[in-house]
Amino acid sequence: MRQKTFILVLLFFLSNVHMAFCLEGSDFYINPIYKNLISQDQRQIKTSLSKSLRTDTCLSYESFKETVKNKYVQRATPFKIILKYDFYFSNIKNIIDNVHEEIMSEDDYLRFSYTSRSNKWTGYDGNVTITFTMQYLTTAEQEQHVNDRVTEILGQIITQDMNFEEIEKVIHDWVVSNVQYDTSYQEHSAYAALFLGKTVCQGYALLMYKMLTEAGMESRIVDGTVEKGSHAWNMVNLCGTWFHVDATWDDPVPDEPGRVLYNYYNLSDTQMEADHYWDNLNYPSASFDYVEGEICANTFTIEGRVITDLPGYEVGIKNAQVQLFGKNMSTITDLDGDFSLTKVPEIDDTYLLKISAPNFKSYTQLLTSVPSRIDIGIISLDIGVMAGTYSQEELNLEISQAVEEKNYLIEEKTQELENLSNEYQALSQTYNTLFDDYRQLSTQNSDLIDNFNNVNNWISIFDIHNDRKIGIHEAINALKCASEMDQ
């Protein structure tokens, strides 16, 4: 009986031995963008705290990063994650910091939407429980209000026939006209800009970023400085060319209703450097001066969304391949299935747009004439292998689309062959020239060898002559010695 009791106690101890030797650690990180905000009267930013703390388990660095990002987007705090894979406990702080920095470097909106991060962790090598406590500028509910309001505004100010140059201008004008600078320096969010009508530079930049991004334009938020201290503004990719836009400085204090300035609208790096300062290694280069009406001239944009054609599961397809045959342009869809092909040259013939993804039937569409911006809309891809048999009409359509695609591919390959043929002829001519040079050098080399052999022959004759000359002198000396001895 005692032996059984001892064994049970030993097993219990061994199964829980890690609990007795758990290590602990903690860290507190202040977002440098808001370092002054945290210290002002110890201002507390409200966050929604859930009563029950759900725990997620991650078995790799990649899943840990994805889970943390989703929590940030949902404005969750606090939240707990169990990390189980091959790592040392002593490295856990670096892992948390690296994941956080990677997430923030990929999403400017998130990077400007929190003020601090606190972490506590317990565990041992390969098994750690991490608690995140975040301070955000806004709650999840407020962010949803921002998304809804932005969608509503864009629907009012953007029309289908606008190109991206015109879209950027109406967004800039709306922000400058409807937001005023918060001289109390209390509001920093896009939510405050939309629903309180006032914010500081970070709020202007966040709202511009949100509206530009939702309108299909690539944008950045710049963390920089001006003479009076830290400052934030935007960069926008306009038809393939980057520019700086500072909506805050285009809306100076005091606010005047209806006033819209363009002093800091679509500036180059050189123009912006006059009174704005930033680490340009972290941002795209804005090398060109803006000339209204020229940046997006003679080009158009194709945009749309790709989803699954499954009732009740109509979700975006990530990383679907979007190809434009005829101009050899391509892109892939994002997490939500959205895509955008920008700065496409004007159609002078016919383009073939093809969208494909693994396990789905491909989608193709011929483009013959377009406005400045094509919104393909929502494209549903049918499951491929599992979709069953094709009807005759579907087969005919698939065959015709495949023939059109093959024709484009044949034309491209033919052009490639012609280019290769021209390159071959040029290389062949170069080879013949080099071979002629080689033969000339070979002949010259043979002449040099002959001359070298002749010199060697003369040297040999000279050596023999010298040997003979030396022999004669020795004989004369010997005769002289013999004659002296006889005497």
Architecture overview:
It is built from 12 helices and 18 strands. With about 475 residues, it is an alpha+beta fold. It folds into 3 domains: about 120 residues, no CATH class; about 140 residues, Roll (C8orf32 fold); about 90 residues, Sandwich (Immunoglobulin-like), CATH 2.60.40. It has a 5-stranded mixed beta sheet with strand order 1-4-5-3-2. A hairpin with a 6-residue loop joins strand 16 and strand 17. It is extended and about 130 Å long. About 25% of the residues are buried. About 5% of the residues have low confidence.
| Basic shape | extended
How much of the sequence is in beta strands?
15-25%
Number of domains: 3
Residue stretches low in confidence (pLDDT < 50, at least 5 long) are 8-20, 40-51, 385-390
* Cα separation of the termini: 136 Å
The assigned structural class equals: alpha+beta
CATH topology of the largest domain: C8orf32 fold
What is the CA-based Rg, rounded?
Answer: 38 Å
Helix and strand pattern:
HHEHEHEHHEEHHEHEHEEEEHEEEEEEEH
Q: Can you tell me the CATH class of the largest domain?
A: Alpha Beta
Main β-sheet, spatial strand arrangement: 1-4-5-3-2
Q: What's the pLDDT, averaged over the residues?
A: 82
Helix content: 40-55%
Characterize the main sheet.
5 strands, mixed
Number of helices: 12
CATH architecture of the largest domain, by name, is Roll
Q: What is the total tally of β strands?
A: 18
